[in-house]
Amino acid sequence: MSDDEPDRVIHADNLDVLPTLPDGRFTLVYLDPPFNTGRAQTRQALRHVRQGATDAAADAASVDPAPMRSTVTGFAGRRYERIRGDLMRYDDRFDDYWAFLEPRLAEAWRLLADDGTLYLHLDYREAHYAKVLLDALFGRECFLNELIWAYDYGAKSKRRWPTKHDTILVYVKDPDAYWFDSTSVDREPYMAPGLVTPEKAARGKLPTDVWWHTIVSPTGREKTGYPTQKPEGVLRRIVQASSRPGDWVLDAFAGSGTTGAVARELGRRFVLVDEHAEAVEVMRRRFGDAAGIRFEP
Ligand SMILES: C[S@@+](CC[C@H](N)C(=O)[O-])C[C@H]1O[C@@H](n2cnc3c(N)ncnc32)[C@H](O)[C@@H]1O
């Protein structure tokens, strides 16, 4: 995949596509997987890894169909296997989900450049388990951040604190080499602008690991109609901080193509994958007849 090739939107199961992409090609991998993957899909995914993976992927992820006995070697090993076993015994609802995700994460790790970063977008039902497992998979020293995207929209429970946030776990391939440029990131207003100088107030402050950002407005410019569409403002910060112009960005659960839209605006290259025809249709409409994008097949 050379720099003169077009950006790509691929209609396929990402587990069929990821093994065909070259090692270390992506500075940024953003994954926003669905939560309800379901058992049938999980079993299919496991079969794919066993039969379809390249040698490199097979090295990185050798997954046994019985999840409790799964092993991932190459970037994890026995410690990961033990933690995984404990977690799955503790909550078997998470079992299917993780079995679906694990081979894709192994691929993401292989595809990351040495200075690359993974952003894994999760909801509160899975984030804590996923963090423990990712610590074991990538190595604790590769954990960079737990981002909280907080929004305030929709119905509110009166029986508990309404849950109005997503978690984005950030892991780097190499803690000594990763790319992170906070100076390129869109800044935000100070909460108490009267407490800082007018110059500082005008410049805004660097975002922290808690991002207040509205969901995609049902009437706004960004809206594509795709149900799980994420706001460009959230993706923009990620792309600005963790890639440079010209770098390749991968989104293997692309949905409406938010990552691609932002990557294009910021001069990054992209590969987007989604298995649903509706998502690809939305991306066709979103990118219009923009030059330099290849839709496959
Ligand atoms: C939460 S949505 C992503 C939304 C996206 N971030 C956006 O801003 O529009 C998850 C997407 O993953 C896709 N998906 C689920 N399983 C997949 C698979 N095995 N391969 C490729 N895409 C998959 C779904 O079709 C869905 O569009």
Automatic annotation (TrEMBL):
Residues 28-282 form the DNA methylase N-4/N-6 domain. InterPro entries: DNA_methylase_N4/N6, DNA_methylase_N6_adenine_CS, RM_Methyltransferase, SAM-dependent_MTases_sf. Its EC number is 2.1.1.-. It comes from Agromyces tropicus. Pfam families: N6_N4_Mtase. It comes from the Bacteria. Belongs to the N(4)/N(6)-methyltransferase family. This is Methyltransferase.
